[in-house]
Fold this sequence. Notes:
Elements: H1 4-24, H2 42-60, H3 65-77, H4 83-102, E1 110-115, E2 119-124, H5 125-149, H6 159-165, H7 167-172
Antiparallel strand pairs: 1-2
Helix pairs in contact: 1-4, 1-5, 2-3, 2-4, 2-5
Amino acid sequence: MTNHPVEMYNYHAWANQTILGRIKELPPAVLSQDVNSSYPTLAHALSHIYAVDRMWYQVLTGTEMGEALQDCMPLNAHVLPTVDEYTDSFAQLAEQFRLWLSSQADLEKTILLNNPYAGPRQTRLSEIVLQVVNHGSYHRGNISTMLRQLGHASTMTDYALYWYQSPADMLERPVSADQ
Length: 179
């Protein structure tokens, strides 16, 4: 049986690497080129996604949300100089998420999420994972728009495309004798 929060996180990690792969194909200066959009540069948008992913990882692993926010806020403004550094940072964090996810017996377990902006709420671990994925999708959309504004094509990172790109799904699909 498919564990949907885990599968969605795997999609998120794939989509991050896919958009980073597209940016890597472009001239290195594109990463820091000014654009009139949600973020001043692609690097700023990537730093934001990373900082929020890191913050939620800390919450999932037991850090109070207020403390995690304070710890990760500086990452939001920390712009890395190369796409390779973003690729490595995202890959390392994805591996930490995967190890954590594989150690969880029950992603439907609730925790008290004390959001400093919205207040306390009983929240399932799976909801937090889906928040990470949704937040990343939203900002990858920003990055796609930014790339177009800079005169470059983006790349598809739709979940439906992931179905066909995922090695795990390729192994699960039955192979007919005609293939």
